[in-house]
Amino acid sequence: MNWLLKTAAFKVLSGLPMGGQLYRYSQEKITRSLVPTPDRVRGKIHVAFQYWDWLKANGYPGDAVPGTILDFGAGWHPTIPFLFYSLGVERQFLCDLHPSLNRDMVDRTMNTFLSIVKAPQEGYRSRLRRLPEPNHNPELAWTDYLQRMGITYHAPYAGLFQEIAGTVEVVVCTQVLYFISREILADCFRQVFQVMKSGGKFLATVYLNDVNATPQNGLSQYNHLRYSPDIWEKWINSPLMSYNRLKARDYRELLEQAGFHVRHFDVTGPTAGDLEELARIPVHECFKHYTREELGAKNLFFAAEKP
User: Fold this and answer.
1) 63-120 pLDDT per residue, tens
2) CA dist list (Å): 68 to 91, 196, 234, 247, 275
């Protein structure tokens, strides 16, 4: 779909009383963008091991594992919590602003997850301490099924954060932060800081380029740099689909303002071809304070620590 038509559709849906429900229905039944395909689940497994390997190298050597992990913005596919359970984590909190999970998503993700980690050619099984059992009991609620693995789902999560303040060892956040405006993100980082115990680790991955760009639509990965803040907010962003256009340095600044010590900050920079593509984009003056390398960067992985 043309990205402008897609943007207009989000604007229209955002103004309808049942717009959110209609969007979810289209994701599940029409575009099927929520289906936990093997590629999507395998991608999440890769990210989970990225987090895990960093933790094992920075505070959890040998057989040690975090006692509690909080997944901030857990979303539709609980692949990462299933992987952490398989690695030995006993307590996990999954947090969303609005409910996203349901039984169908949990069951389908679990089935795909098990098919991947059990496959000898994937090479995962030797790293796992245990495997979860699929839910074959139609009478067992999906929330109770997750609780048997020490996993609880919270959407919304505000009450939980007050209850567990100062107790969480690790917080992870996977490709969620770019949906949140800078002002709200600053508050989110402060909340995450408060929920963590001293020495706790906060790990996240973040897209930095244009998420509307796909190989199919031919849109430049730097198209979002064309527009002024007013045009971006008035004509492109909507309550159902919003992007903040922050760059790597912005995330670092917000983390440090919240009180975190940044332990690891890995930015995937632009290639020579990326910079050539960027040079063809009329960058709006609101981005002039960034370097070309900062504007061209594509991905960020950070690990921050609460002192």
Assistant:
1) 999 999 999 999 989 999 999 999 999 999 999 998 999 999 999 999 999 999 999 9
2) 5, 10, 41, 30, 41
Q: What is the pTM of this model?
A: 0.93
Tell me the β-bridge partners of 152: 93
Rg of the Cα trace of the chain? 20
Q: Quote the CA–CA distance of 71 and 153 in Å, as a whole number.
A: 10
**Sheet containing 151-154, strands listed edge to edge, beginning at the edge strand earlier in sequence:** 151-154, 91-95, 68-72, 168-174, 196-207, 299-305, 261-268
Strands (E), the chain: 68-72, 91-95, 151-154, 168-174, 196-207, 261-268, 299-305
Residue with tokens 């760009």: 213
Buried-exposed string 123-136: b where 16+ CB fall within 10 A, e elsewhere: ebeeeeeeebeebe
* Residues ≥6 apart with Cβ < 8 Å to 288: none
Q: Which residues fall within 8 angstroms of residue 49, CB to CB, at 6 or more apart? A: 83, 127
Paired with 241 in beta bridges are 238
Assess contact for 98 and 155: CB atoms under 8 A: yes
Rounded distance, CA 301 to CA 265, Å? 6
Q: Which two tokens stand for residue 246?
A: 């922050």
Amino acid identity for residue 243 in this structure: Y
